[in-house]
Design a protein that fits this description.
Elements (H helix, E strand, L loop, with lengths): L1 H7 L15 H16 L7 E5 L13 E3 L8 E9 L5 E18 L14 E7 L18 E2 L14 E2 L9 E8 L2 E9 L8 E5 L5 E8 L2 E5 L1
Parallel strand pairs: 8-12
Antiparallel strand pairs: 1-4, 2-3, 3-4, 4-5, 6-7, 8-9, 9-10, 10-11, 11-12
């Protein structure tokens, strides 16, 4: 009993408690992950996000505020900026990879430059978005009626830089320019100095050799607002 009593008087070793607070680096990574999940919701449910750089390398970053240096839906390898602090006085950058299986358009046959795209030329495939080139087309409306800017091989993934709108105004042609201002509208013939599709802005030359810019509004028709 004497021995037990003596042992009871000895100090009890303290047991270290696990730190329940999230480390600063993890908080940044989690904030970036949530941010990317919100920005990639349009890609579907099977989205995988991997933070490639540890947020711990950023140092202390209170109240992280992620943002995208480049606008648009993040796809593949992306850079995410993080403002640190309530006033965003410091900015850090993380690298991330966004993966998702998406449906995209492919050519079912070879297409020659200048050939107009119709539905019979289009097919669908699925692929990891991280392996697709930027500008891939995910809607038939983005391709049907467009014109090939280059030769497109059979089976190639269609991208926006392979296609253009049909020319409605051609360089060197005489077209109608409508000048619109407050309370007036005047039309005259001018020379188109560029090719242009509907909605594009091109250069034009008036009868007195003045160079202006006009918006393509229809076949051989331009408009300028004064």
């Amino acid at each position: 009993m004497t021995v037990l009593f003596a042992l009871s008087l000895l100090p009890i070793p303290s047991i270290a408690r696990a730190d329940t607070e999230t480390p600063a680096g993890d908080a940044v990574s989690e904030s970036v992950t949530r941010f990317l999940e919100q920005r990639t919701s349009s890609l579907g449910d099977q989205v995988t996000i991997e933070i490639r750089d540890s947020g711990a390398n950023l140092g202390d970053c209170p109240a992280p505020q992620p943002f995208l240096p480049r606008p648009g839906v993040p796809e593949g390898r992306v850079t995410v900026g993080v403002h640190c602090g309530g006033e965003g006085k410091r900015t850090r950058y993380l690298q991330a990879t966004v993966s998702a299986v998406v449906r995209h358009l492919v050519a079912l046959k070879s297409v020659d430059p200048g050939q107009r795209i119709d539905a019979t030329m289009l097919g669908w495939q699925q692929a990891d978005i991280a392996r697709l080139r930027r500008g891939y087309l995910a809607s038939a409306d983005q391709a049907i009626g467009m014109v090939a800017t280059r030769r497109i091989p059979n089976g190639a993934t269609l991208t926006d830089n392979m296609l253009r709108k049909p020319w409605m105004v051609k360089r060197g042609d005489t077209v109608v320019l409508t000048a619109v201002g407050h309370g007036f509208r005047v039309s005259r013939s001018v020379e188109a100095l560029d090719n242009g599709g509907l909605g594009s802005t091109i250069r034009l030359k008036t009868e007195n050799n003045q160079i202006l810019q006009g918006k393509v509004t229809g076949q051989d028709r331009l408009r300028v607002d004064l």
